[in-house]
TrEMBL record:
Transmembrane segments: none annotated. It is found in: Cytoplasm. This is Rod shape-determining protein MreB. One of its GO terms (molecular function) is ATP binding. It holds the Pfam family MreB_Mbl.
């Protein structure tokens, strides 16, 4: 059995243990801070607090972009520090085993790069599981079921949907119209309509708050014309309108998976619907738009942010589900 499940997302990394539950849930961000002796590695929430505030010589980076590894050295460093922080005195193993998430359409080269980086970072053994299948496990779905099931995973870098039967993917779709593009849309709206320049972190926080707020929201940034600090009040409806084009593009890219679903599986989807997971699942109107486009029920689980990592931890006891490239 694997010791941990690691959902290494573009926006957030979640680590889950089969017995202890979620032990890490922080931004996928690493800052290499210049120090007297080499460098200081700052991870997660602490790194996010420094984003945009680093001195010359500091390096800030995300380990993955759009669900894919773009810098092997950065991924190795990030995972090594992540393992040091999460496994210390916890499971009494020096080189823990892990199941990591990967995009459902990841190429063999991308899979191998992630596995090699993980094992070089200090894992004794690593396996991969596509994020939608892991999300299904984390939501309590039975992957061995003969019925056709579907899970959509909308994160920061990618949105993807997979339809599977007995743990085998029948059809899939993915796109880059996801959380990062939604954040960019919020920044553009504030700049064009309010003359306010927001940091990426501030725009992302505003987007998250808008998913649950009913009252106008305060946005703090820099006035585009004067360069001075300024606070503006933004209606929730404005944020929803700014996000709407991105949501429609994501839904449009994912919805045509129905064309490839075996006709015998359509009654299964009508009965079971589609599970919507991922950190961007609560985005305003995403569920409603997807439901309207598909014509089947769309359900958001209780823990959409962490269900993929929870499924990865469970997959440690299911070797038939884990995949390693040839």
């Amino acid at each position: 059995m694997a010791d941990i499940g690691i959902d290494l997302g573009t926006g957030t990394t979640v680590v889950c243990h089969p017995r202890d539950g979620v032990v890490y849930d922080e931004p996928s961000l690493l800052v290499e801070w210049p120090a007297r002796r080499g460098r200081e590695l700052i991870l997660g929430n602490d790194a996010a607090a420094l984003d945009g505030r680093t001195p010359p010589g500091a390096r800030t980076g995300r380990p993955v972009r759009g669900g894919a590894v773009t810098d092997l050295s950065l991924v190795r460093t990030y995972l090594h520090e992540l393992l040091r922080r999460t496994s210390r005195n916890r499971w009494r193993v020096r080189r823990p085993h892990a199941v990591l998430s990967c995009p459902v359409d990841a190429t063999p080269l991308e899979r191998r790069a992630l596995l090699e980086a993980a094992e070089e970072a200090g894992l004794g053994h690593a396996d991969l599981l596509p994020a939608p299948l892991a999300g299904a496990l984390g939501c309590g779905l039975d992957l061995a079921d003969a019925r056709v099931q579907a899970v959509a995973d909308v994160g920061a870098g990618t949105a993807e949907i997979a339809v599977f039967c007995r743990g085998t993917v029948l059809t899939r779709r993915s796109c880059r119209h996801a959380g990062d593009e939604m954040t960019a849309a919020v920044r553009t709206h504030l700049r064009e309509h309010h003359g306010l320049h927001l940091s990426e972190a501030a725009a992302d926080a505003l987007k998250v708050r808008a998913s649950a707020a009913r009252e106008p929201l305060a946005a703090e940034g820099r006035d585009v014309a004067t360069g001075r600090p300024r606070v503006v009040t933004v209606e929730v409806a404005e944020i929803e309108a700014a996000l709407a084009p991105v949501v429609r593009r994501a839904v449009g890219a994912l919805a045509d998976f129905l064309d490839d679903v075996p006709v015998a599986g359509i009654p299964d989807l009508l009965a079971g619907g589609v599970v919507l997971a991922g950190g961007s699942a609560p985005a305003p109107h995403l569920r409603d738009e997807l439901e309207a486009a598909l014509g089947v029920p769309v359900k958001v689980p209780d823990r959409p942010r962490t269900c993929v990592a929870e499924g990865l931890a469970l997959a440690g006891g299911r070797p038939e589900l884990r995949a390693r490239p040839a």
